[in-house]
Amino acid sequence: MKILVINSGSSSLKFKVYNMPEEKMLCSGLIERIGEKTSRLIYKKEDLELIHEESIESHEKGLTIAVRFLMNKEYGVISSAKDIMTVGHRVVHGGRDFFDTVEIDEKVKFDIERLFSLAPLHNPANLTGIEVAEQLFPHAKQIAVFDTSFHQTMPEKAYLYALPKDMSEKYAIRNYGFHGTSHKYVSEIAQKMLNKKDSKIISLHLGNGCSVTAIENGKSLDHSLGFGPATGLIMGTRSGDIDHSILPFISKQYGISIDEIEDILNKKSGMLGLTGKTDMRDIVDAAEQGNKDCQLALSMNAYRIQKYIGAYTAAMNGLDALIFTAGIGENSAYIRNEVCKNMTYLGIEIDEFKNNRKIVSPVDISNSVSKVRIFVIPTNEELEIAKQSYNTMTN
Description:
Layout: E1 2-8, E2 12-19, E3 24-32, E4 40-45, E5 48-53, H1 59-70, E6 84-91, E7 102-103, H2 106-114, H3 123-136, E8 141-146, H4 156-159, H5 165-171, H6 180-194, E9 200-206, E10 210-216, E11 219-223, H7 246-254, H8 258-267, H9 270-275, H10 280-288, H11 292-316, E12 321-325, H12 326-331, H13 333-340, H14 352-355, E13 363-364, E14 373-376, H15 381-394
Parallel strand pairs: 1-6, 6-8, 9-12, 12-14
Antiparallel strand pairs: 1-2, 2-3, 3-4, 4-5, 7-8, 9-10, 10-11, 13-14
């Protein structure tokens, strides 16, 4: 079965085609800067990489161009649209209604639209991707995989906020959790590496957006992102945890609105606010050259992660494995080392030689006396979407 996976963003669209259940990726593509004159499509198949540049004003046009590449006689992977039997879609927010991956019908689309207010940057783009795929692949089953569904197993004591009860219930205010597709994918690999189902795992998804999940016996127990993707760890441009009394203080001091404050917390804070940079490689380089702002920012970043590791280890009453994943988690030996420093009380001890090697596949970087296994596991959200889509269609 050929499955097309679509990850539709506000101005970008990623796609991959898999042969399932073999889990073989046939091709991948990225359409970026949708709506701009400088749009382009990057298409990859095995060792081939093609770059196509033209003004792509909409997701519909972008996906239409992508289909043209998929059906090309020389480097395509399908002969017609009918070859795609299933299209799996990443949908960021499923609210409190979607516990599992589902086949998309009119009600599912209505519910995704109803949740626009909870994910205004993501769900509209996700729905657009669904509607365009329905037009281009009318014979295919459309499947929705929700980022939030993995975290539906969190207990009330973890996902509720200490707000007036009627407010929480009326407006569905709770911790929904995000990056669930990534956390699920890497934690299942970690369970196999541990060779045990009864496991206590902390998964660190460290990219431009960052999150931590406590995973007990394969289920999400607690998670650092909350009602929106802004709490928890220090991120590329997002502040992470902050004392909420700072918000009205800033509003009064600067004479700015809640919307303007939200823009500051989401787009001008985090590592950017601390250093003027967002790329972790640039920040590490500057820190090693003596930049004190970058040194402090990296120290703050690692310290925040360590606090969450301590808290989630306590929540699970133990820890078998720590996972590093996503762009920074997979590629920054510096951050991995800083996070694992001075954690011997919890049984976390890193092997510096293993840590400094290039990571291309799941690897254990703990040393011989570490009680906790330390894994670096490259994430693959598109493959996880393909797997869940295939299982939904065949079960």
